[in-house]
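Lab notebook, bench 4. The sequencing result for the construct came back, and we need a structural model before the next group meeting so we can plan mutations. Quick request posted to the team channel:

Model the 3D structure of this chain.
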Amino acid sequence: MPGKKYHHGDLKNALIAAGIEILAQEGLSGLSLRAVAKRAGVSHSAPYAHFADKQALIAAISTEGFRQLDAALEAAASLYPEDPRQQLVEGTWAYVQFAIHNTGVFKLMFSGVLEKELDYPAFIEVSHRTLARVVTAVQAAQAAGSLRPASPELVAAAIWGQVHGLTQLMLEGQFTHTVIDRYTMREIVFFAINLIA
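Done. Here's the predicted structure in token form:
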């Protein structure tokens, strides 16, 4: 109960989960250490055992978000072990699906509100690993001859940027009805990827 001493078996993850719930329901403006403590049913001072401040909480939630995104990209790629280009294409759709189903966390991950990222090595490691997964998929598709030769890092950045931009437009309801009424988000994303790749 809030305000009462309460032993939690896995307090850190419970607080992260509470933060994710708050983001989904209230957005970033509702996120605070006090709010996650209340949501987790622990005293308002309990989060400080794991998070020095709100920035540390944001880093932990963002890190968990990147872990889930990375797992989603890996799962999408595993469906097409013999087709590197399809791995890449389905990975873009997994990215969009992650954003749709985890909108609050997705927006936080890419919001820029995390200051001093280098102070959070777990965040740096998993976010870099996620980008490296895209680069590796590009390299595999290039090696198979199904993607034009170019700098793999440049192609990966272009694909990620294109998909992320389209995803943000979708999340913010910025597509015109002349487009969104005629085409699915999947069709829009795949068309954009084919322009680049």
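DSSP finds nine helices and no strands in the chain.
Will bring this to the meeting.
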